[in-house]
Amino acid sequence: MRSLYFCFSIVLLMLCVRAQSQSVSSVKQQINAISAYNAAHTPEKIFIQTDKQNYIKADTLWFKAYVFDAATLGAPTKSGLMYIEIADANNRVVNRNMVLLTAGLGWGNIPLIDTRFPEGIYTLRAYTNWMRNFDEHYIFSRQFTIEGPLDEDWMISSRFELSDNEGINNVKTNLAFITNHGHKMFAEELKARITAGRRTLYRTTLKTGVDGSLAFDFNLPEKTGTEQLNISLTKKRTKQSGEITFNVPVIINRDEKTDVQFMPEGGSLISGMMNHVAFKAINEEGKGVDIQGGVYNSASQKVADLKSTHRGMGVFELQPEIDQTYTARITYHEKQLNFPLPTAKSSGLMLRINNLISKDSIIITVTPTPDVQRGGEVYYLIGQSNNMVCYGALTSSGKGTKRFSIHRSAFPTSVARFTLLSQARVPLAERIVFINHQDKIKISVIAAKPIYNNRDSVALNIIATDKDGAPVQASFSLAVTDDTQVKLDSTVLDLPVKVLLTNDLKGDIENPGWYFSKGDSLTKAAALDALMLTQGWINYNWNEVLTPAKKNLLYKAEPAFEVRGRVSNAFGKPIEKSNVVLLSKNPVIVADTLTNAAGEFVFTGLYPADTVAYNLQAKNKRGKMFNVGIEIDEFVPPVFSTVQQRIIPPYVNIDTGRLKALRTSKLYKEEMAKITGTQLREVQIKAKKAVKDSKSMVGPGEADFTLNEEDLRDVGKLSLLNVIEKNVKGFSSMGKKGAIYYNINRALTVFIIDGVFTLYFRPDGTSYYQYMKGVLEYIAAEDVKGVEVMTSSRNQMEYVSEYIYPRDPLAKFYDFTFIEITTYSGNGLFMKKTPGNYLYRPPVFASTKEFYSPKYNFKKPVAIPDTRATIFWTPNIITGEDGKATVSFYTSDKSVGYTVTVQGADMNGLVGAAQSKITVKHE
User: What average pLDDT does the segment 811-831 reach?
Assistant: First the structure.
């Protein structure tokens, strides 16, 4: 709140000094409008620290959540509940939990059960319900991998080259297969499928060479891009192992497909003036690439030099002339490429900001073209940061060039946005800069000694101070990881970088931590300013901001977990003083309340854990359920955009750091096996997904496809038909000889519900399709324990023999598929929904069990080796009034280096992060 008060003080000072009374009133009016909009539309920012950046199968993900009010970086005033979810490579959410927030802080863990989280690439997301009202970029999101053991896992190195073969694009492919033991895929036959997005281009069979390599080429059909090219390779089933499919994305970056985008400062090139122009060069994959070259006019005269300084970004000066066009000629990998610059305008205002030459002030220059100056137009200059107005001024273009010197102290450390607005409230130019007061929390991690022994006790002193050295009371999370097993990814954001920089920028920012790392500070400051020029953005519509009409935000803030709803009669009228009872078996809860005049009720103080289900019952004033309806304000999960980056499977072009970490993990398992006398090579048993109480004829877990309680838990208020259509591959309705029927891959689908063969109950004169459509739409997903699909010949025969042959001995078994449905009621087709009842299955809270950290007593030595990857994790270290705290743990059995990562915030505007090292050596 300190920065908010100071910002408005600066605004008022600027108004008094720079304008007459009527001007002050006019600027105040604009500021009040903007401030009112900001107050009602302040988003929240989230950062999630995890114990590691990548995981192995059956691991546990430990996390700490920091949720901030975007305006103050203090604890949020709106949200006390956060959602954390994990989506797979197909953007399917496989886990979602709630997290209870206390002063914006929360923590927990997510077991990465291998049956639910197979090897692959996942996306971790975190958000509050309030955040869903704003741009999706505010949602915390990062990718991570879950990797399997390297016992016999194949690794693939890939290389691709695109060439022109008589006008046809040809992709030359070179792959090499090798295991961790160095075994090569000798003369192995592979089924290959080449796709472009959802379209299959080719199917063929290929064979590896004696050296495990696979070289082939294929032509790209006309108008086929390379962005979604993928090669799927399937290794045949053997007695020792099942069928294995490898997916290898085809990554091609053609030099000639390099693109350069030009972004003049303020928004437009203006002729007759010296323009500051930023540019960004990206390759075909969208990554920044370094280029150099020049800008040429229509007469091919060079008028400016350009050279990128970092990640393909840079700036140059250009004074365009009227009736001239300009072209950038660049050199990239010895290729000469040409790119036209935007056309210059002959009239307008030029906004120039220098954020580099002065340590104390930001220098802003506004220059009108001669015609605009003659018009004497009045305009506003508005400066904002963190959704707060920090500066406002009014001036006239009739005064010619206007120079503003604004003290940096008017803005907090963050992205600041300056906008020129006309009197008609039309934005004329905009520019963002980054203000850095170097006021992050300084965190020192001090170990008691430089080197520790195995199974030694470690005490770490945590000291937190502000930029002036004063102690800071704050909450920190700390992770200690084994460097040989955990590879730290430098591109993963830390807390200050996320909430101070990247949350206010759009697009992929490559390795944003580099801008704040040690090195040439002037070079990094210039590169950061180029980033502001190229990836700056406008986060709301100015017309909406400055008009009096109010829009209701769609999603309400959730201060806590509540069960809210309404009770109404058969005519939809609310029932006042209706008695509503909430029941739960696990944990056992019996609670009741009365509805208000609007028929509304609310239950608070609940903490849903495990697979909780709340049964709500409502009665009218006479204590009857007849003609009583009950509705619940259920959480409807959002559907977020798929991560646009190409997903590279962990086994493709694995880097040396990750490979070393996996190999180390395998060696540790071998040591464990020798000591405990167990075999390292585990028998890989495919976990069977069973449905409790199923009457399936093929036995538990033997269906060809299964949805169990866990799968159906988070689908919400969908009908069973919706669930089947969405999840059962090949399921559809189609016509045959004028009839419509449900089928799976054109084979008629017959439904069995709680062991009841539904064909027996089809009413006369009603088609089986019409009958089952009504049944499947009536049954809600929440009423169902499981869905089992039978499509293989073995399973088809079981059901056909039982149900079809007695009716039609000449039937062909492969003409039928079967779906077995198990409901909670067990009443099959005769289940009914009772008036006044509602079954509600909310997301559950994330587990908050304590991280296990062994304590060694040398009087009682432990024989089992300690090979932890995460040595220690603690989510809530609180520094005292002196800014100090202490944590302790024991080292493992390995002589390695440890990395200590600490992140935290005082939840009053200050954030910080730090890393340090610990060395462990066996004496």
Answer: 84
